[in-house]
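Async update (no meeting this week)

Hi team, since we skipped the sync, here's where things stand on the single-chain job. The sequence we agreed to prioritize is pasted below, unchanged from the tracker. I ran it this morning and attached the output directly underneath so nobody has to dig for it. Comments welcome in thread, and please keep replies under the output.
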Amino acid sequence: MTVMTERAHMLVEEFEEIASTVPETVTLEFINGRIEEKYVPDGDHDEIIRWLQKRCMQHRPDLWLYASERGLKAEAYRKGRVRPDGVLAPDGHFSGHGEWSDPEGVLMTVEVTSHDGDTDRRDRVEKPAAYAAVGIPVYLLVDRDACAVIVHTNPDPKSSCYLDIHRAPFGEQVVLPEPVGITLDTDPLKNYVR
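Output:
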């Protein structure tokens, strides 16, 4: 009798091979050694990212908010790959990179909550821990369920958490501290609450 043992986690290289074959309508992430599907964003999600891109360009034309297409390596916590809704970095920062980039030089990651059952674990727990573990200075969460913007700063890679968290309801001004250096008037976000 042959006993088969199931390997609990796949290798990053195996994930990258699988991810390269899926159609454009599917987005995969590699979280804690497992493949997970990332839901396709709705129109309001896209409009929030567009709004944020515009604000970033107005205040910091030397930076660009790369939306949804930029994959980051986050091995320090997840031993995997993560695709934020937005990645703020100097304009041209990812030139010459492949699909997955080292997070060095990234100033901020952005997530906008989705209307799915996994958003709590993914956007409020796992992703901030992953971003803090690799030392990304600012994590901005636009929480549509709570109608609030949550700014995570002062990452502690050793504990995989942000030491400072500021929560502001939609409508308040929010400071994205250095190295981002932008103040956002979040009143327009009230338009994207359903």
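Quick observations from my side:
The radius of gyration is 17 Å.
The chain has a mean pLDDT of 84.
Reply here if anything looks off.
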